[in-house]
Design goal:
By secondary structure, this protein is mainly α. The chain is built from nine helices and no strands. It has one domain. The chain binds protoporphyrin IX containing FE (HEM).
């Protein structure tokens, strides 16, 4: 069993830095001129990928904790979830600022007219209340409602996969892999919940 001190002073700081590694590598590519002819697209794809990856990594915490008895993992879930939100904010900012150049009219038109943007934007909006209520105070105050609210993350991840599937033209392999992973993660939960009801 991992001690409280080890988690607080070793595991959490290491994880904090690890989660910034993708951003560091991308920044390095920017600095060394390694991006393609469309750097804004590169930045959108990079941040979108990592938003979805962090959402899925966060959803792995509970199954891993229950399957292997790694109770301490739960203490890392909040940080992972907030990193998903962090990369989502970057993703949205790159699109809003660099792609749409802060043109509110264009942005609203895109959200309404392009289904994959509608889906991505809805997922992003839903992430906001989860990020705001990811603290101990909200958990204590909202109690059962907190658990209900945070179940939204399943829908958010599903919308993230749909958003990805919708925007790719032909190469559906990557979004499909994320989709299958999500189905597995959600099925494990559904199965546990069903079993708990029948016991
Ligand atoms: C939870 C929310 C979101 C997730 C998980 C997500 C995920 C992704 C993923 C995985 C990609 C594709 C990356 C690749 O091809 O390698 C992507 C691309 C993209 N996303 Fe999102 N996204 C989210 C929200 C949004 C929002 C809010 C917007 C804008 C309103 C947006 C706009 C875009 C655009 C414009 C692209 C690139 C399309 C292209 O140039 O090919 N996404 N996103």
């Amino acid at each position: 069993m991992m001690s409280e001190q080890t988690i607080r002073w070793l595991i959490k700081p290491v994880l904090f830095v690890l989660c910034l590694v993708p951003l560091g590598l991308f920044t390095f590519d920017v600095m060394s001129g390694e991006l393609s002819a469309d750097p804004v697209k590169d930045a959108t794809l990079f941040t979108g990928d990592w938003t979805l990856r962090f959402l899925l990594i966060t959803l792995c915490v509970t199954p891993l904790r229950r399957l292997f008895g790694w109770i301490w993992l739960i203490k890392l879930r909040r940080m992972l979830g907030l990193y998903a939100f962090f990369y989502a904010c970057l993703h949205f900012t790159v699109w809003f600022w660099l792609d749409r150049e802060l043109q509110l009219g264009d942005v609203i038109e895109d959200i309404i007219k392009r289904p994959y943007i509608t889906v991505g934007f809805s997922a992003f909006m839903m992430l906001i209340p989860l990020a705001i209520t990811s603290n101990k105070y909200s958990i204590c105050r909202l109690k059962k409602r907190w658990q209900k609210l945070h179940k939204l993350v399943y829908l958010i991840a599903a919308l993230g996969v749909l958003h990805f599937l919708w925007l790719v033209k032909s190469d559906v392999l990557e979004p499909l892999i994320y989709g299958v992973l999500l189905i597995v993660l959600l099925s494990i939960r559904a199965w546990w919940e069903r079993r708990a009801k029948t016991i």
